[in-house]
Amino acid sequence: MKIGKILLIVAMVSATIVGCGSNASANEIETPIIAESQAMATIEAVPLAAGNNEDAAESVEFTTEYEFSPEDSDNEWGNGAATVILLDGDSAQVSGAGAGFSGGILTINQAGTYVLSGSLAGRVLIDAAEDNVVRVVLNGAEIYSANDHAIYAPSGKVVIILADGTENSVSDGAARTDNNINAAIYARNNLSITGGGSLRVEANHHHAIRSQGILAVTDGEFEITAPGNAFRGRDGVAISGGTFTLVTEGDTIESSRSNDNSRGFIIVYGGEFNIRTQNDGFQAESSLIIYDGQFNILTGGGSANAPERPPEMRGGRDFRGEMSEGFEMPEDFGEMPDMPRRQGGQGGRGEMPQRGEMPEGFEMPQRGEMPGMPPAFEPVEAEDSVSMKALKGNGIIIINGGVFIIDAEDDAINSNGDIIITGGDFTIGTGDDGIAGDGDVLISGGVINILTSYEGIEGMTVTIEGGDITVFATDDGINASDPASVGRAAPGRGNDRLAIRIKGGTIHVHSLSDGLDSNGNIYMEGGSLFVSGLSMGMEGAIEQDGVFVVSGGEVVTSGSIQNVSGESSQPVIYVSYSEPLPAGSVIEIRDTEGNMLLQYACEIAALMSHYSPPSFSFFTSPAFETGGTYGLYVNDEKRTDITLNEIITYISDDGSEFVPGGRGGPGGGMPGRGNMPGIPERGEMPDINLPEPGQMPNRGGPGGTPRGR
């Protein structure tokens, strides 16, 4: 187990933002350095040497890498020195030392290897010395305890080996002689499971497999049902491989120690996970680290089962979308396909989709369908909060790779601290937030498709350095807000601790509220950003309470946007349209030779009720030069030439000038909701083009609410 010292992103990004307040010029905006090893064992953030940054970076230690011991993956057992035990109903024949059978209980009392085969209607007690390692080989074993736990180890380290090519099963009774032993398989010290066989666990009391130390799994095929957890390691859970079909009512894989950040972790290096749970899929009390693996996770009743939220205005706005009919997860996650069994230790595991393929039964929305707003809203009475998140960490979450197919009634990825995503392939449907951190969110790579959500990505800061990201949201697409605050700051008085910073990647946002919404600042420094947002009241493509500074990257929006800071260093264009811009309109900026510089097919009709201007877009590109002339095209028809005489240029699509700051203009007031055709009423969705089933959204060309936990 390795502990990485993390100078928290909280400190890292706050230093970045505090050092780049409303009085900072674009040239003064620097970026923290993220140094990452291939194994992600240490993640170090170097804060800015900003003059007004008086807070030192907080150093917090989390376990970010687990070193498996040799016995964790040693499945060689032979028949030489092992004690061989033949289970026979309510009796057992023991050949060798270290074990005995009496009164329906098989007792193992010393270190060694014990090979179990046959069927036992009773219990196994592993009561060796504290420093002993006991290796239990399940070689075609069935252990059933009708009125108690099935396997219990009060001391010693236990290694369970699933013999290659064998099928094994363990089940317990709903009753207990000792309610503290609340799992079918329970170890009070470390517990490891390995081997090329299979294990089916039917838990009837509470948990299936539990360790009070560290629970390590390196191999095996598992089919588990439980009213509690499938796997629970108090100090930690470490998984390097295996195939898992898990159906639970509690959190499926959990680590629960809460008084030590170096414990209470979950680390996954690989494996294939099919999870259906009423609560969280993965729940780590401290750090949740995923390097690789394939994950198919359904929580609660899925995103379509999320409760409706009443519509409210700023500071308390709360409404939730529904999953579109075209977006379907497997109807019954409980009926998993039969797991292929290995023959002689060889053969395949249960099949998961290959990269780029969708699983059978998982359909993308039909074109023209969008995760919709409910047809009507009624207030929802407060209920006790039940967490139904797919991936949850109370400390930090780091995802370095993997394939994720998530349908969550609650958040898909949630941290009470910070989230770092450096890679992975994500297909997400959620009834609440796609990626949500109470601290800071950093994305530097991966393919992220959030196909339905309330809010897509949110944190106190959201920093995007790379990746290919698509977000559909009924509220804000990307949001920077403080979960401890209520309401918004007055315009121009944003919290400098809060920010959205885009440095790289390709980002498509489609929102029924604000595409990007920061209760602090927004910094556009690189990458490509395309936003389809509304132009109604306070809802638009981009909104911030502080400053919006542009120093690099390319942006195209349809929908209202607030004023860019005059301290921006890259030219920007605001275009006001003389007529409403319908959904599906292809807008382009070309140079004088006709070369396309920017192109975007807006997904949502951009309208501003009956006030003027009715609709407008925002453009910026590293190709823009002050003094240069560019052409505006809509649906391949030239509208006007635009000459950039200043860093910020305002122009109408007929070539006339429009004055910013009026009602409906950039930085202007809030027009009322008019009755213009094409403006959706609440409960109605605009016509939005979504990908055909099995296809991912086209990202190449045309194409603040405090959060509860």
Chain-averaged pLDDT = 77
Q: Kindly name the structural category.
A: mainly beta
Shape: elongated
Provide a count of the helices: 1
**DSSP E strands, number:** 55
Question: Quick recap of the structure?
Answer:
The chain is built from 1 helix and 55 strands. It has 709 residues and is mainly β.
What would your notes on this structure say?
This protein is elongated. The chain has 709 residues and is mainly β. The protein contains one helix and 55 strands. The C terminus is likely disordered. Helix content is 1%, strand content 41%. The strands form five sheets. It has a 24-stranded parallel beta barrel. Strands 7-8-10-12-15-18-21-24-27-30-33-36-39-42-45-47 form a 16-stranded mixed β-sheet, with no helix packed on it. It has a four-stranded antiparallel β-sheet with strand order 51-50-53-54, with no helix packed on it.
